[in-house]
Amino acid sequence: MAKRQTAQSNDGLHYLKAELARLPTSPGVYRMLNEAGAVLYVGKARNLKARVTQYTQPTRLPVRIRKMVFETRQLITVQTHTEAEALLLEANLIKSLKPKYNITLRDDSSYVSVVITGDETPLIRSHRGPKREKAKGDSYYGPYPSAGAVYQTLDFMERVFKLRTCSDSTFAHRTRPCLKYDLKRCSAPCVRYITPEAYQQDVKAAKQFLQGERAAVLATLQAQMNDHATAMRYEAAAAVRDRIKAISQLTEASGAVTHVVPEGDVFALVTQGGKACVQAFYYRNGQHVGNHQFWPTYAAEQESDAELLRVFLALHYANRPAPVRILTNLEPADSAMLAEALSTTSGRSVKLETPTRGEKAEIVARAATNATAALQRKLTESGTWQHQLAELAKLLGSPPITRLECTDISNLSGKHAVASQVCAGAEGMEKNRYRKYKIQTKDTPDDYAMLREVYTRRFTRMAQEDPAEWPQVLLVDGGKGQLNVLVECAQAAALWGQPHAPQLVGVAKGEERDKGLETFWHATPAGVVQLPIAYNSPLIFVLQRIRDEAHRFAISFHRNQRATALSASRLDDIPGVGPTKKRALLQHFGSVAAVRGASLSQLEDVPGLGKALAKVVFDYFQA
C-alpha cells in the first residue's frame, strides 16, 4: 500500500520530522521527491520509520544527503511483506526512475541465452529476452555476456552434437538434407538420416555439456565408441572419436576452464578517488565465456563498498536471471537477504560467496586485479580530460567546463537530413546525453538553414531548462559561417550575453582536411576571434575526438534514415495495411507495381487480406 505525504514547509527536514508519526514500522520502500515532483532518492528499509528517522539527524549526514533532505517536499512509502521484496522493488524503481541521489548503473543490454527446444525433434538456437511461457519443454542455458560467446557455443555444438538449427517450417518441408549435413554440422533428422532414438541421445549429451557435465559426456561417448568398435562399425566409431577429440581440444585450448564454477558470475568491486569499477567474469559450462566492466556512479561519502556492491547486484539482475552461484571479492551488505531476493526472481536457489582460499579465491583475485587496472586507466583518462577542459576554459575566459556539446549535420544533397548532438564532460564522452535531430528543412542542401533549425530547437529547449544545467560550450563543426549562424540563434533566443550562456566555438577543417591543422573560432561580443591552440597539442586531439564523434553519430543516424526510406513503399500509406498485410501482398504479387495493377478479385485472393481490406487497397490505387 503506497502513501504520499506532501511538505507544507520550505524545509524538508521539518517536513520529515512531522511525518515520522505517520510512518509504519514494517519493511518497505520510500521515495523522496522535490517540489517539482522529480524523484530524488529511492531506498529500502527493514523498518520504514526507523530508516526515515535517520534523515532527521543532520549532524550525522554527509553534506550531499543534507542537501537532498532540504530539497525533499514529498514522501511516498510502499509497505512490503518482507525486506527481500523491498529490495526487489527498490532495484526496479531505481532502474526505471533513475533518481538523482541514487547509485546509477547504465546496463541496459539484454543478455543472450542458448535454448534447446522441447519439440519432438529439438532444435538449438540463440534466444534473447525472457523465456517463452508457452514452451514448457524448452531448456535454457545462460545467459551469456555477449552474442559472440553464444555464437561460439552454437558453432561448437553444431560441430560436435549436430543438432538441427533450422526453423520448424523448414524442417517440416525438407525432402533432402541441407548443406549443413554435407558440412558435417547436422545429422539430418529432417529426412531420417538419424533415428529418433539416436537423435535424442545427442540431445541429452548436448544438454549435459551445456550444464557443465563434460566428464559424463566424455564417458558416454567413450562407451559408444567402444561399442561401435566391438561391433566393427568403424565409421561410426571414428565419428564418435572425432567428437571426443573436439571436446578435449576445447578444454585444452581454453586457459580459463574451471570445475569449481561450472555456472556462475564473478564480481570484483574496486573504489578509488570517488570512482568505482566492477569487473565481471562469466562462467558457463565450466568455461570463462566473457567479461565486462561496469562503472556505477555513486556518492562515496554516502555508500560503503558493501552497500554499493549490494545495490549494484540488485540492479544488475533486475531484468535477467541470476546464475546458481555468484562470487564476490567482498561481502555485499545484507547478503543473505540479497540471495533470497535473487533466488525469488530467478526461480532457483542462488548462492552468494566471498571465497578466501582455493581456486575460487584465485578467480576472484584475477577479477579484482583487472578491476584495479581498469580503474587506474579510467582515472588517468579522466585526469587528461579534466586538464584539457580546464585549458579550454582558460582560453575562452569562461568558468570551469563540466559539459561541452558538439553538433554536426549529415545529408545527401538535402535528402534525409539529420543532425547529431554529442556531449563530453570531465569523464569523457557522455553517451546518455546524446541527441538526434530529424531536420524538417526539406530537399535543400543548405547547411546553414539546417543548422539554424537545429540550434533554434536546442535553444528553445534550453530556455525551459535550469541555467545551471546548460553546457558551458557549444562546439559546431564548421568555420566562421556556421559559427555566425550559431550566434544568430543565440541572439534570437535572448541567450546571448546571459550569465550562464554557453561559449560558442566553431572548428574549421585544416588544409586538405588534415587533422591537427584545424582552426578554432570563438564568438565574443567584440566579434569572432581565432583561438590560439598550438598545432598537435593535447587539447586539439581532445576537441578532434569530440568533433569526430559528432560526425560519426550523425553519419550513423543518416544511414539509418536512408535505409528506412528505401524499405518504405506506397503500401505503407494504405489505411489498415500493416507489416503483416504488406508482406502478404508483396509475397503474392511480387512488387508494388503488380499490386497496383491487380483487380479486386485478385486482391481478394490474397491469403489473410479479406474482402473489406482488398476493397480499401483497390480503391487506394484507383483514386
Describe the sheet with the most strands.
8 strands, mixed
| E-strand count | 20
Structural class: alpha+beta
Alpha-carbon distance between the two ends: 58 Å
Mean pLDDT: 83
- Poorly predicted runs: 4-10
- What is the count of helical runs? 20
In angstroms, what is the radius of gyration?
31 Å
**How large a portion of the residues is in β-strands, by DSSP E?**
15-25%
Could you estimate the helical fraction of the residues in percent? 40-55%
Q: Which shape, going by the Cα principal axes?
A: globular
Description:
With 623 residues, this protein is α+β, with helices and mostly antiparallel strands. Strands 13, 14, 15, 16, 17, 18, 19 and 20 form an eight-stranded mixed β-sheet that branches. A five-stranded mixed β-sheet has the order 10-9-8-11-12. The protein has a four-stranded antiparallel β-sheet with strand order 1-4-2-3. The longest helix is centred in the middle third of the chain and has 39 residues. The protein is globular. The two termini are 58 Å apart.
Describe the structure concisely for a colleague:
The protein starts with a strand and ends with a helix. Strand 17, helix 15 and strand 18 form a beta-alpha-beta unit.
Topology readout:
Layout: E1 2-6, H1 12-19, E2 28-33, E3 39-45, H2 48-54, H3 63-71, E4 74-79, H4 83-97, E5 112-116, E6 124-128, E7 139-144, H5 147-161, H6 168-172, H7 179-182, H8 196-210, H9 214-230, H10 234-253, E8 264-272, E9 275-284, E10 287-294, H11 305-316, E11 325-328, H12 335-346, E12 351-353, H13 358-396, E13 403-412, E14 415-425, E15 428-429, E16 435-438, H14 447-463, E17 473-477, H15 480-492, E18 503-508, E19 519-524, E20 527-530, H16 538-567, H17 579-589, H18 592-596, H19 600-604, H20 611-622
Parallel strand pairs: 8-11, 11-12, 13-17, 17-18
Antiparallel strand pairs: 1-4, 2-3, 2-4, 5-6, 5-7, 8-9, 9-10, 13-14, 14-15, 14-16, 18-19, 19-20
Helix pairs in contact: 4-12, 8-9, 9-10, 14-15
